[in-house]
């Protein structure tokens, strides 16, 4: 009987030991899955900082940041306009006028590659609401500011938040003073035409046409100048998509057109769609087409800051004045 009890005890001890091993293994696997999903990036906390309010709360940012990351185009252009060169940003498909040399900026991709950002050892990360999905992980790398933005019409408020965060508010005010003076010069050159020249802005996609309305970057510029819009575009929305059959909604005294293309394949398809549209009888019936007032413009017409804004003003001088 003593031998049987001893064997039973031995089996119980062995079973308990094996159960403990299995539990440790599974627990370890679970921890590995979690660490792969959310990397543990150690953030360096600086006591020399000040609080900045942003769309996701308050964050204490360095007084003089010198290794800054732009998570998106929305914050990249304001940085460049403020003469601040980020150490990392999504620069692979950037189309910002007068952007300068971007070769020293590490491409962080879109959506942002957090491993690349971590390797750059930033002391500040800036992004717009478009990038808020990576906010929690970004805050583990460096203090992160997310600018509130509902559409590209908010480009001025983003500029001033970026400027405030990096200590360049004076520079932002200078940029906007220059912008205002250029708007006033354009208004003076246009004279009475400013009240009667309806400006249509459209974008050609492979399968449809977008009409750009008031609540978008180019809409704010045209409103600042005081140029009227066609009824179809005089709306407090970013844009509206139409088919070729409704192309009459795109008419105006002047039509500005650009083509969609986030990559080479889409760009070629959009250019082919524009060429096909230009030979369509419905297109040729538009007043702006009949009077030769249709102009193809670059991608920066849907920009994100002062650099694009000044380039658009150059185009307005070129096509409406000169």
CATH topology of the largest domain: Rossmann fold
**Strand portion:** 15-25%
Output the strand order for the largest sheet.
Answer: 10-9-8-11-12
CATH superfamily placement of the largest domain: Nitrogenase molybdenum iron protein domain
H/I helix tally: 11
Keyword list:
Rossmann fold, 11 helices, 12 strands, 2 domains, alpha/beta, single chain, disordered N terminus, 322 residues, 16% strand, globular
Q: How would you briefly describe this protein structure?
A:
With 322 residues, this protein is α/β, with parallel strands linked by helices. It is built from 11 helices and 12 strands. The protein has 2 domains: 49-168, 3-Layer(aba) Sandwich (Rossmann fold), CATH 3.40.50.1980; 190-321, Rossmann fold.
Please explain how this structure is put together:
This protein is an alpha/beta fold and 322 residues long. It has two domains: 49-168, Nitrogenase molybdenum iron protein domain (Rossmann fold, 3-Layer(aba) Sandwich), CATH 3.40.50.1980; 190-321, Rossmann fold (3-Layer(aba) Sandwich). Helix content is 43%, strand content 16%. It is built from eleven helices and twelve strands. The chain has helices at 2-37, 73-81, 114-119, 135-138, 155-166, 169-190, 217-225, 264-278, 281-284, 287-290, 306-321, and strands at residues 49-54, 57-62, 68-70, 88-89, 106-107, 124-128, 144-147, 199-204, 209-212, 239-242, 254-259, 294-296. It has a five-stranded mixed sheet. The protein has a three-stranded parallel sheet with strand order 3-6-7. Helix 2 (73-81) crosses helix 5 (155-166), helix 5 packs antiparallel against helix 6 and helix 6 runs parallel beside helix 11. The N and C termini lie far apart (111 Å). The model is unreliable at 1-42 (pLDDT under 50).
């Amino acid at each position: 009987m003593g031998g049987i009890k001893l064997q039973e005890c031995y089996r119980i001890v062995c079973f308990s030991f094996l159960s403990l091993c299995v539990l440790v293994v599974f627990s370890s696997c679970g921890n590995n899955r979690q660490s792969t999903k959310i990397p543990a990036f150690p953030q360096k906390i600086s006591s020399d900082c000040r609080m900045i309010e942003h769309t996701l709360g308050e964050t204490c940012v360095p007084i003089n940041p010198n290794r800054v990351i732009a998570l998106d185009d929305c914050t990249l252009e304001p940085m460049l306009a403020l003469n601040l060169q980020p150490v990392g940003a999504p620069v692979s498909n950037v189309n910002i006028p007068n952007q300068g040399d971007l070769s020293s900026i590490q491409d962080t991709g879109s959506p942002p590659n957090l491993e690349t950002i971590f390797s750059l050892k930033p002391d500040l990360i800036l992004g717009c609401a478009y990038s808020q999905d990576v906010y929690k992980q970004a805050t583990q790398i460096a203090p992160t500011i997310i600018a509130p933005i509902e559409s590209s019409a908010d480009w001025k408020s983003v500029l001033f938040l970026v400027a405030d965060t990096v200590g360049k508010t004076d520079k932002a005010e200078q940029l906007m003073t220059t912008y205002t003076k250029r708007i006033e010069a354009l208004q003076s050159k246009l004279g009475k035409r400013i009240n009667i020249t309806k400006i249509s802005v459209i974008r050609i996609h492979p399968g449809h046409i977008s009409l750009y309305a008031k609540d978008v970057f180019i809409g704010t510029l045209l409103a600042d100048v005081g140029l009227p819009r066609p009824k179809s575009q005089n709306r407090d929305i970013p844009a509206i998509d139409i088919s070729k059959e409704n192309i009459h909604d795109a008419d105006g005294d002047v039509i500005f057109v650009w083509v969609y293309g986030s990559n080479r394949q889409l760009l070629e398809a959009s250019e082919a769609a524009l060429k096909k549209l230009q030979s369509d009888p419905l297109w040729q019936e538009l007043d702006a087409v009949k009077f030769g007032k249709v102009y193809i413009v670059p991608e920066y017409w849907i920009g994100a800051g002062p650099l694009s804004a000044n380039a658009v003003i150059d185009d307005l001088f070129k096509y409406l004045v000169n």
